[in-house]
Specification:
With 331 residues, the chain is α/β, with parallel strands linked by helices. The chain has eleven helices and 14 strands.
C-alpha cells in the first residue's frame, strides 16, 4: 500500500465515469456556464480497467464509482458486471442520484453490489424540483424502496443547506427512525469556480447535531475515519436507521484521509480541495508506456497528498477553494 508523506495509507479510489448528469442542482453547477468534457477526452471503460488494475496493484481495496450521474453513461451496468468479474475481491460502491436505477436494482444485487449511496436533499417533491430543476423525486424514492426490498444498504447523502432544507431535519430523522438507512448530512463546500456557496447557505455539523439531539437521542457508533469513512455515525434509540454527519469544513478528517480521485478525463486529484491534477490519460494512450509506468506515476504523486484543511485555511476568504465543479471532479 502507498503511504503518503503524512503517514496515511492509500486504499480507496473514487473514480468518476462521467461529468454528465440528468439533474441541475443549483448548488452544484451553474448551467449558464456549463461546459462538458469532450467525448474524446473521456476515459474509455478499457482505460478505466487499466487504472483500476494499477491502483489494485498498489494496495487499493475499495472503489467508488461516481459522476456526474454514472448511470447516464451508456453501458455502465455492463461495465459494472465486467468490473466485478475482473476484481471480485474489491469493495465496490456506487454513488448515484437514484433517478435511473429502479429497474436495475435486481441486476445490481445479482452482481454483488450490497451498498449504494443515493443523493437526496429533500423529502418534499416540490422542493426537489426547486433544488434539482427536475420532477424526479418519486423516481428516487422508488429506487430507495427497491434497494431496501432487495437487501441493498442505502446511504442517503443530504447536502446541508441553511434556508433550503434545514426545516426538514425532523422529517429526515423520522425517515431514519422508520427505515433501515443511513442519512448523512454533508456540510456545503465551497467547490467550483462559479459556486453558489456563501455563508448564508452554510449549515454546520454542530448545528445539525444539536438540533437532531432535540428530536431523538443519538448514540455515537463510529467516528469519522473509521469504517464509516468521513462520517460520524449515530445510532437512533428505538430507530431502524442511523444519522451521519460529514464535516469537511468545521471538523476536518484530513489526518485519516485514505483516498484518491480520478476525474472523467483521467486526471488524478490527490485532494478534493486542491486543483493540482496529474494527467494520466496520456500514459494510458501511449503505446510506449505500460502498466508499470502508470503505477510509478500513481505512486510518486500519491505520496505528495496534501492536507486539505491547510488549503481551506489558506483560502478561507475566497468563495471557492478550487475551480473545478463537483460534477466534473466526481461527487
Amino acid at each position: 500500500m502507498i503511504v503518503d508523506q503524512y503517514g496515511r495509507g492509500v486504499s480507496y479510489l473514487r473514480l468518476s465515469v462521467t461529468d454528465r448528469c440528468n439533474l441541475r442542482c443549483f448548488y452544484c453547477r451553474n448551467c449558464k456556464y456549463l461546459k462538458f468534457i469532450s467525448h474524446q477526452n473521456i476515459l474509455t471503460y478499457e482505460e478505466m480497467f487499466e487504472l483500476i488494475r494499477a491502483c489494485v496493484d498498489l494496495g487499493v481495496q475499495k472503489i467508488r464509482l461516481t459522476g456526474g450521474e454514472p448511470f447516464v453513461r451508456r453501458d455502465f451496468l455492463y461495465f459494472l458486471a465486467r468490473l466485478r468479474d475482473k476484481f471480485p475481491f474489491l469493495d465496490l460502491r456506487i454513488t448515484t442520484n437514484g433517478t435511473l436505477i429502479a429497474n436495475k436494482v435486481q441486476a445490481l444485487k445479482d452482481m454483488g453490489i450490497n451498498c449504494i449511496n443515493i443523493s437526496l436533499d429533500t423529502l418534499d417533491a416540490d422542493k426537489f424540483i426547486e433544488i434539482t430543476g427536475r420532477d424526479f423525486y418519486h423516481k428516487v424514492r422508488t429506487s430507495i424502496d427497491r434497494c431496501l426490498e432487495k437487501g441493498i444498504r442505502v446511504k442517503i447523502n443530504v447536502v446541508a443547506l441553511k434556508g433550503v432544507n434545514d426545516n426538514e431535519l425532523e422529517d429526515f430523522v423520522r425517515f431514519a427512525l422508520t427505515h433501515p438507512v443511513d442519512i448523512r448530512f454533508i456540510e456545503f463546500m465551497p467547490i467550483g469556480g462559479r459556486t453558489m456557496w456563501n455563508k448564508d447557505f452554510y449549515w454546520s455539523a454542530k448545528e445539525i447535531l444539536t438540533a437532531a439531539q432535540k428530536i431523538t437521542p443519538l448514540i455515537l457508533q463510529q467516528k469519522a475515519g473509521q469504517t464509516s469513512g468521513p462520517a460520524k455515525i449515530f445510532g437512533l434509540k428505538e430507530g431502524q436507521g442511523r444519522l451521519g454527519i460529514i464535516s469537511p469544513l468545521s471538523d476536518h478528517f484530513c489526518d485519516k484521509c485514505n483516498r484518491l480521485r480520478i476525474t472523467p478525463d483521467g486526471k488524478l486529484r490527490t485532494c478534493l480541495f486542491s486543483d493540482k491534477e496529474y494527467r494520466l490519460l496520456p500514459l494510458l494512450r501511449s503505446p510506449k508506456l505500460g502498466l508499470e509506468q502508470l503505477k510509478k506515476v500513481l505512486e510518486q504523486t500519491s505520496r505528495k497528498k496534501p492536507l486539505g484543511y491547510n488549503l481551506l485555511s489558506r483560502d478561507e476568504n475566497k468563495q471557492s477553494v478550487c475551480q473545478r465543479v463537483m460534477s466534473s471532479i466526481g461527487g
